[in-house]
Design brief:
The protein folds into 2 domains: 251 residues, Aldolase class I (TIM Barrel); 71 residues, Orthogonal Bundle (Arc Repressor Mutant, subunit A), CATH 1.10.10. The protein contains 15 helices and 16 strands.
């Protein structure tokens, strides 16, 4: 799974949800009045045009419609966004176009419409395969409904994936192993498996602080992580990134754009981008509030509120932070080219001795199975 030529991705953020999940700290908003999709489409097209004028001549290798809940959009809205991307950039013949979807029966009825609009991969936010857990996670679908939606996705798309959250309250390694085996029997090629994290500002944060939400202790969380690796690898879906598992060749190409440090445009409310402009890497971010973003785009042609030129040290640190999440690891020579300095051989030697990293014959540096659970510490040590 080595990177060949640099990729260019386009991320489009649809910020609306039917309800806000208690664990979620993403830029998502609930609106009880109907969303004016036509107005948003015009704004997306405008921001795409402006971004393409800053980063012209790219060939788009992947498009990701994330959220929020993009499957609340009408298929013609998705089609119009994809048309706007194709109008302003070249699009590769084998472009990967992913849409995040909730596995409710209502949204699953739109899958064939999304396929006709140009989507060729869906990522379903299943999160759990038992009804009690789904209810506690604030999800609006049942386990049966989720599996039915997966079956519809299977019939409409050659490529599909779904997410599960583990390290949930009262979850044991045995329970998780059984749930994971069921998930793998339904997942053709790709699973995203995330440990439940308690994020500040979410309802779960308040409940956890008050002692009303018990999450697994550190030893159980580690056991759940180990079960994840063993069961997935044993069923032909090894981890290619710390939380993502796929059969060979079925990795999410768009997410690889982020982790390999390639370029991507961020379109829509609260979207982030990394663009190379006049020889410098720019980190961009747009206005988070949907209505404020709309007004900015209508007035200025874009909703960008942050446009920071990254220096060589920042670019190198980002490459290290993102690249070490991948099983393929990083090329220290690229780190040196970005930062102007090499990684400390002494620190590498210590981390190798501790079993946290390996160095291939060609010099690639990878985090080991034992190193991944302490990835933050490994990155901090190498970046120091």
């Amino acid at each position: 799974m080595a990177a060949d030529k640099p990729a260019f991705g386009v991320y489009v953020h649809w910020p609306f949800c039917l309800s806000k999940c208690p664990y979620c700290d993403f830029n998502s908003h609930v609106r009880h009045a109907a969303v004016d999709e036509d107005r948003f489409v015009r704004a997306f097209a405008r921001e795409i045009a402006t971004t393409a004028s800053r980063a012209p001549g790219r060939e788009v290798s992947s498009i990701f419609l994330g959220g929020g809940t993009p499957s609340l959009m009408q298929p013609q809205t998705v089609g119009a966004i994809l048309d706007a991307i194709g109008k302003h950039w070249r699009v590769a013949g084998d472009v990967e176009v992913t849409l995040e979807a909730n596995p409710t029966s209502v949204e699953a009825t739109r899958f064939r419409g999304y396929r006709a609009a140009g989507v060729n991969r869906v990522s379903l936010g299943v999160q759990a395969l038992d009804d009690l857990s789904l209810k506690s996670l604030g999800r609006l679908h049942s386990a049966r409904e989720a599996l039915d939606a997966v079956a519809i996705a299977r019939s409409a798309f050659d490529r599909y994936s779904f997410d599960l959250i583990y390290a949930r309250p009262n979850q044991t390694p045995t329970m998780w192993a059984d749930e994971l085996k069921l998930a793998i029997s339904e997942a053709a090629e790709h699973l995203s498996l995330y440990q439940l994290t308690i994020e500040e500002g979410t309802p779960f944060f308040g409940l956890h602080a008050a002692g009303k939400l018990q999450t697994p202790d550190e030893a159980t969380a580690r056991a759940l992580y180990d079960v994840t690796q063993e069961v997935c690898a044993g069923h032909g879906l090894p981890a290619y990134e710390i939380s993502n598992h796929a059969r060979a060749g079925a990795e999410c190409r768009h997410n690889l754009v982020y982790w390999r440090g390639d370029e991507y445009a961020g379109i829509g409310p609260g979207a982030h981008g990394r663009l190379d402009i006049s020889g410098a890497r720019h980190a961009t971010a747009t206005e988070k509030r949907p209505e404020s973003w709309l007004m900015r785009v209508e007035a200025n042609g874009h909703g960008v509120v942050t446009d920071e030129r990254l220096n060589s040290e920042e670019r190198a640190d980002e490459y290290l932070l993102m690249g070490l999440r991948l099983a393929e690891g990083i090329d220290p020579r690229r780190y040196q080219a970005l930062s102007g300095r090499s990684l400390d051989p002494g620190r590498i030697a210590v981390l190798r001795e501790e079993g946290a990293i390996t160095v291939d014959a060609d010099g690639r540096l990878r985090v080991t199975k034992d190193g991944f659970p302490v990835l933050d510490a490994v990155v901090a040590d190498l970046a120091a």
